Amino acid sequence: MRVPALSGVTALLTAALIPAVLIPAVLIPATALPTDAVLGPPTAEFDLTVADAAGTPLRGALLTCPDGLGNHPHGEETCAVLESVGGDLDRLPGALHSCARGHAPVTATATGVRQGVPVWWSRTFANACEMDARTGPVFRFWD
Question: Are 61 and 108 part of one and the same domain?
Fold first, then answer.
């Protein structure tokens, strides 16, 4: 089937109207979306574990931020602390308190993704009390 060519006036009107109709149709839905829809997936998802000196896992928790979802008993507080340090676990303010000098090493490990960037962090502490004093609520799953 042959399509007839557009006349000069019709072609000009069509060329002028197509952008006027299509541009708002493309822009309006994007600007009308609620903020949550634009943000997409969670900002961070972590698998947090504590293991003994032999590497045997003692306990663990899953955490999704910013809402503190998962099975971490201090999820919201932990997400807030992690956000305050930009996800850098080396900058955690800790929960300053004194600890006995007992030697029962534990290794705390955090793996996951924060704002699309893979996270892997692991530190060994002299005991669980020292770990808590250095990491605050992040590895506090036993309450």
Answer: yes
Residue 74 forms part of a structural domain: yes
Query: Alpha-carbon distance 63 to 65, whole Å?
Result: 7
* Each residue's pLDDT tens digit, 88-105: 999 999 888 889 888 999
Tell how far CA 20 is from the center of its chain.
40
Residue type at 133?
A
Q: Walk across the sheet containing 57-65 and list its strands.
A: 69-70, 57-65, 44-52, 106-114, 117-125
HSE (CB half, 13 Å, CA atoms) of 120? 1
- Helix H or strand E encompassing 111: strand 106-114
Name every residue whose Cβ is closer than 8 Å to that of residue 54 and which is 6 or more positions away in sequence. Answer: none
